[in-house]
């Protein structure tokens, strides 16, 4: 039964944490465009008491994202998330073929981890959401940053990749999205794997 290991909600990040959830780790990939920068402030304030917060970000607004997250969270490190193969994102305005992105790590040092994660070559999965990440890459992050049985949270769930890899790796999951269709997609993906 999916509901015994997975709690999926249609709500905002702020509303999710106001409900009193206490995850062991947040592993998330909020939207990168400029109009969504305010979400990084909301995320930081909502997760102040979470032991580990891992936030995948683009590089275009990295200084502003880091400033917003560091208002409430203690910076620990950065993981380089590699996307090998022919899936480099072309950043035309700065003339860069981006083959990696930062994952900013916040919280207290509890366990050791390596600071390079990667997806399988050409595993750029957009089947479930336009901004989706690969299962192989998210699985690397979840396995690297959490332990079986822990509660992983993604408050910007999108197509549910963090949810399905967390469940596949023996973690429990709680997450939300403001898009009801995205939550239903995640629910369907989770039920299909059980």
Description:
The chain is an alpha/beta fold and 194 residues long. It has 6 helices and 10 strands. It has helices spanning 13-18, 38-46, 62-70, 135-145, 161-168, 180-193; strands at residues 6-10, 25-28, 52-56, 75-82, 89-91, 96-98, 100-107, 116-118, 151-154, 172-177. The protein has an 8-stranded mixed beta sheet. A two-stranded antiparallel sheet has the order 5-6. Helix 2 (38-46) runs parallel beside helix 3 (62-70), helix 4 (135-145) packs across helix 5 (161-168) and helix 5 (161-168) packs parallel to helix 6 (180-193).
Low-pLDDT runs: none
Broad shape: globular
Main pleated sheet: 8 strands, mixed
Report Rg.
Answer: 15 Å
Number of strands: 10
* Rounded mean pLDDT score: 91
Q: Helix- and strand-based class?
A: alpha/beta
- Give me the strand/helix succession: EHEHEHEEEEEHEHEH
Strand order, largest beta sheet: 1-10-9-2-3-7-4-8
Strand content: 25-35%
Total of helices = 6
Quaternary organisation of the protein chains: single chain
Alpha carbon gap, first and last residue: 7 Å
Percent of residues in helices: 25-40%
Short summary:
This protein has six helices and ten strands, in the order E-H-E-H-E-H-E-E-E-E-E-H-E-H-E-H.
